[in-house]
């Protein structure tokens, strides 16, 4: 269920956004829509684990994969509002969804408020979105040329009018994803202006516009914490969520209501899977702590699941190519013929079916390796493993195991489940 958020009163950006030298200079006022914003957030389940918006990468099959593995909300990739409002083909290709794909935040970039409103209305009227998100964080050159994303940090009255036009004219909430300024007080004033303009949720990517390389720059959780303390609507933290351990650390340090993950989720779509990842090492606030990589067996299985989702929900194959590299890139490094084909040939579903077949073959190979290495030192078990069990593994039928009683059933069960998924 979505909850209508009443439009906030019109206040000019100049009155709301005055660069300040200290946060204390700004009187804390709870905006009138804050209660409705929380009611809406609760109505979508107070989601903590968000698939971040990613151009060509947070598309439907990937969102579904992440949801099946713990994500509780997802953003679409950034859509260009003007093109979306004018071009039916773009709409049909770039925004696909299904009933499992909720809650969903549809993200737009825009320079002109009327383009943004036209695009947002189309989405609202189609009933597929829980909110419309505005991208104020894209730092790429194309955003500079188009006058959107993080380059709007140089034109705050326009930021305000983009948020406000949606808040005043839509029945579903508007949310915003922002970056930080070098100056903490300016960041907080910026976030408060976005909130006052009508945003029902603010996601803060704790990096500067100039910090484009996420892996080499630590996100500033202190800035996120300051924004959370200053705002009355839900706040999400973004940056340096590398594994499940970081989620808890980030939530407790920043006080944020949820987190977004992007790059690490591409490599491990099960990052938010609490039962599966609970034992993963905890990073600390300084950024120490190891990066996490899911075991090869599991990544191969996730890639196979992703391929199945692509079959059910076709998307442009350049997106599939990106995911295949992120999920099983190191495995493809051993299968260079396949990797070269993926890089060189026009992407076709047949090509990715080959990957799927080889990925499944890889799962079996890894199963056999795990199996043999685990039991090789046990004379009885290794005899079994080299006889009936490996036979069972390669034929994916534990039930037909000829070795009775089977001493390895429970160990084999998980591996076989993975194979069965292939
Ligand atoms: C491949 C890719 C595409 C992205 N596309 C978008 C986008 O469409 N909209 C957006 O707001 N941010 C986009 N981002 C930024 C992420 O949403 C996120 O803010 C950033 O990667 C930091 O999160 P992380 O440290 O978990 O990677 C993208 C990031 C990546 C890696």
TrEMBL record:
It catalyses: 5,6-dihydrouridine(16) in tRNA + NAD(+) = uridine(16) in tRNA + NADH + H(+); 5,6-dihydrouridine(16) in tRNA + NADP(+) = uridine(16) in tRNA + NADPH + H(+); 5,6-dihydrouridine(17) in tRNA + NADP(+) = uridine(17) in tRNA + NADPH + H(+); 5,6-dihydrouridine(17) in tRNA + NAD(+) = uridine(17) in tRNA + NADH + H(+). It is an enzyme of class 1 (oxidoreductase). InterPro entries: Aldolase_TIM (IPR013785), DUS-like_FMN-bd (IPR035587), tRNA_hU_synthase_CS (IPR018517). Signal peptide: none annotated. One of its GO terms (molecular function) is tRNA dihydrouridine synthase activity. Keywords: Flavoprotein, FMN, NAD, NADP, Oxidoreductase, tRNA processing. Its cofactor is FMN. Its EC number is 1.3.1.88. This is tRNA-dihydrouridine(16/17) synthase [NAD(P)(+)]. Belongs to the Dus family. Dus1 subfamily. Pfam families: Dus (PF01207). Residues 51-276 form the DUS-like FMN-binding domain. PROSITE patterns: UPF0034.
């Amino acid at each position: 269920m979505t909850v209508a958020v009443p439009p906030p009163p019109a206040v000019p950006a100049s009155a709301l956004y005055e660069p300040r030298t200290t946060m204390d200079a700004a009187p804390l006022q709870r905006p009138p829509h804050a209660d409705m914003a929380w009611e809406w957030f609760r109505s979508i389940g107070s989601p903590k684990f968000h698939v971040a918006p990613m151009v060509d990468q947070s598309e439907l099959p990937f969102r579904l994969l992440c949801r099946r593995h713990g994500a509780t909300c997802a953003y679409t990739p950034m859509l260009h509002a003007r093109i979306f409002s004018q071009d039916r083909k773009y709409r049909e290709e770039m925004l696909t969804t299904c009933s499992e794909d909720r809650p969903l935040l549809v993200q737009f970039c825009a320079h002109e408020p009327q383009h943004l409103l036209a695009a947002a209305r189309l989405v609202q009227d189609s009933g597929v979105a829980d909110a419309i998100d505005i991208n104020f964080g894209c730092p790429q050159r194309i955003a500079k040329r188009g006058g959107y994303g993080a380059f709007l940090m140089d034109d705050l009255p326009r930021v305000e009018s983009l948020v406000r036009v949606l808040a005043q004219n839509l029945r579903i909430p508007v949310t915003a994803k922002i970056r930080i300024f070098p100056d903490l007080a300016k960041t907080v004033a910026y976030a408060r202006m976005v909130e006052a303009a009508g945003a029902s949720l603010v996601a803060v990517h704790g990096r500067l516009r100039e910090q484009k390389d996420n892996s080499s720059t630590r996100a500033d959780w202190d800035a996120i914490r300051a924004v959370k303390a200053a705002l009355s609507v839900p706040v999400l933290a973004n940056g340096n969520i590398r594994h499940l351990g970081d989620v808890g650390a980030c939530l407790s340090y920043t006080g944020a209501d949820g987190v977004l993950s992007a790059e690490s989720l591409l490599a491990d779509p099960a990052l938010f899977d609490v039962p599966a990842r609970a034992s993963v090492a905890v990073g600390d606030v300084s950024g120490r702590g190891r990066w996490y990589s899911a075991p090869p067996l599991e990544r191969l299985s996730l890639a196979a699941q992703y391929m199945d989702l692509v079959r059910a929900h076709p998307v442009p194959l350049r997106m599939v190519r990106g995911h295949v590299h992120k999920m099983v890139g190191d495995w493809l490094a051993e299968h260079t013929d396949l990797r070269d084909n993926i890089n060189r040939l026009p992407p076709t579903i047949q090509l990715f079916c080959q990957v799927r077949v080889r990925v499944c073959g890889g799962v079996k190979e890894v199963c056999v390796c795990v199996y043999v290495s685990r039991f090789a030192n046990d004379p009885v078990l290794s005899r079994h493993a080299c006889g009936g069990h490996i036979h069972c593994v390669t034929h994916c039928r534990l039930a037909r195991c000829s070795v009775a009683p089977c001493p390895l059933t429970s160990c084999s069960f998980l591996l076989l489940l993975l194979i069965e998924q292939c």
